[in-house]
Amino acid sequence: MTRLNGGNSNNRIFLVVGTLVALLLIGITVWAVQRGQTSTPTSAGTKTFDLKGQPFIGKEDAPVTLVTFEDFKCPNCKNFEENIFPEIKSKYIDTGKAKLYKINFPFLGDRLDPNDSVLAAEAAECAYDQTGNEGYEGMSTIIFRAQGDESQVWATKEKLEELAGSVDGLDMAKFKTCLDTDATKARVEADKKQATDAGVNATPSVFVNGVLTTDFSPETIGKAIDAAAK
């Protein structure tokens, strides 16, 4: 402050030059920030998923795509499926505005033996192999309905085979062979890799046209669908 108010001409020259340099640096900084703000979020925040062969609900030509990552041992996923998803389905999926793909993210059983997060996902995929989307959804509904403590093994192969008996259209001999031989395990592991590659760290995680929603409430998801449809 002393130099800014001094009478020396050299100081005034330094002051002018210094001010010009400072303004130039500020201008460059502002330009860089603005440029980053217009180009970075879209590319970094939008994820692309391989949806080929993934179970889905809705019409294939629906304009908005939802992707959910779930673990059958996850209590929040059970809540989402039973209490939140029906509202989304009624308002957006049944009306053809959106479709929803389901991708397995079995992580809660990683420290258990056997890993029944993986086994439950395998069972749903075995049902999908036989009767497509309806089989996956039927098996998924029954597994969530029978959900046990997330810290304990409850989705054993024996239990899952018992539950599958309530799913319409399944050949139980084929289902048992599929589950006993871990025929769908590679697909489940590929699903899990998609989740980790996308930075998913919680379930359920819901993406709307590749953008992760801030939470899984019907209000938040609904607003994201409406915005994506514009």
UniProtKB/TrEMBL annotation:
List residues traversing the bilayer: 12-33
GO: which molecular function terms? oxidoreductase activity
Alphabetically sorted, this entry's keywords are: Disulfide bond, Membrane, Oxidoreductase, Redox-active center, Signal, Transmembrane, Transmembrane helix
**PROSITE patterns hit by this protein:** THIOREDOXIN_2
Domain of life assignment = Bacteria
Cite the Thioredoxin domain residue spans from the record: 33-230
Q: Which family does it belong to?
A: Belongs to the thioredoxin family. DsbA subfamily.
The protein's name: DsbA family protein
User: Organism source for this protein?
Assistant: Deinococcus psychrotolerans
